[in-house]
Amino acid sequence: MKLLAQFHEQNTGLEQAKILLAFSSGLDSRVLANLLHSAKIDFQIAHVNYQLRGEDSELDAAFARDCASQYNVPFHYLEAPIGKGPGIQEKARSIRYEWFQSLLSENQLTHIATAHHLDDAIETGLIHWFRGMHLMQFKSLSNQGIVIRPLIGFYKNELLEYAEQNELKWREDISNQSNDYLRNIIRNQVIPAVEANLPDVRKRLKYSIGSLNASALLLEDYRKLLWNDIAKQKENEIWHLDILKLSRLQPNKTYLELLFAPYGVVDTTAFINLYDAENGKYIAIGNYTLYKFDTELIFADLDCINRYKALEIVEGFSTKNAELDRSEVLINGTVVKHPLQLRIWNSKDTIKTSNGRFKKVSILLRELKVNPVDKKRTTVIKDGKQTVAIVGHYVHLEYRPLEKDALNWLIRCY
């Protein structure tokens, strides 16, 4: 048939894949299952029951199981009850994709296939547009890594025609008729209203969204060139940005929006104020934090940076030719009185310095010019109430190692 031939043409190489099909029991996933079967592509079916629609949810699950049996393919089923409320769609998406990922590794599958089609892509593009976005934040539906969308080149009415010609059955989700969600308003009201006056609007929107996607890709290449010149990644999810280079980009606010668009909305006025701010001043951009430190801005996702959480003690460590890593501390083990503990420092911590006096850890870190991100994750080793060491930076005067190696301990932090 014509659509099957087009499916082969648009999905060259898919016959080599082992696919997990996200199956809702609706028209789109039913058609995709039939096309995969007809094309002799290896696939399995996965269905999530959120139990949001009572008996209808149970009937959807039974239908999905029957289809897997009809095609003689493995069936995977997950019951994940979630209550209605704000953020329900994102919560449901997170649940199913975490499960899909686990099924991939457990069953040696290569891809997750969803049944999104061209009308879905158009609706997604309009949602982004209506909500307001930078071009760099524009993301239409497309194949992304292991997540593939084999029907993305077909309109909904083409799938409906194929289903009717092949006498396929499917289940209708009545919630798709409700206008409680922006997508349904666009699908049920906005596009039909425009279509009544501009019959080929879907074709025009297809062109516009494709053009936006292509422009975004070109702009991303330029953004990466700028970013690589200005930002140096010294650790995972931590970049050091050259303030002078940043400030020379003009118009500055336009360039800042471009550079940081993938991370979130930028308050460009607050950003520019950081150029001349005191060390430690910061702003948030999405999940990231941007700190001023000397001639740099340190850009970091604080939830992703490494913090030491455990320690290992090696007794009788030889100091000869020893080069300690930043995660290692050498101390005099004979003065330790309690089981050693590792934790993030706090404002009450003090440590005995070389002059025999106690100094607050916060002050010592400032004097040592520890940058704000490193300061956030700095850990201390405690012996009871005593601060034995600031890992990577300083050791308590009375805990410093002796010349006799047998008495020293090497502490490795992880």
What does this structure look like?
The protein is elongated, with a radius of gyration of 29 Å. The protein has about 425 residues and is of the alpha+beta class. The chain has a five-stranded parallel beta sheet with strand order 3-2-1-4-5, sandwiched between helices. A five-stranded antiparallel beta sheet has the order 6-7-10-9-8. The model has no long low-confidence stretch (mean pLDDT about 90). It contains 13 helices and 19 strands. The protein has three domains: about 210 residues, 3-Layer(aba) Sandwich (Rossmann fold); about 60 residues, no CATH class; about 100 residues, Phenylalanyl-trna Synthetase, Chain B, domain 3 (Phenylalanyl-tRNA Synthetase, Chain B, domain 3, 3-Layer(bba) Sandwich), CATH 3.50.40.10.
As a whole number of angstroms, the C-alpha radius of gyration is 29 Å
Report the biggest beta sheet as strand number plus sense, adding barrel if it closes: 5 strands, parallel
Low-confidence stretches: none
Strand content: 15-25%
Distance between the termini: 60 Å
The counted number of beta strands is 19
Taken from the alpha-carbon principal axes, the silhouette is elongated
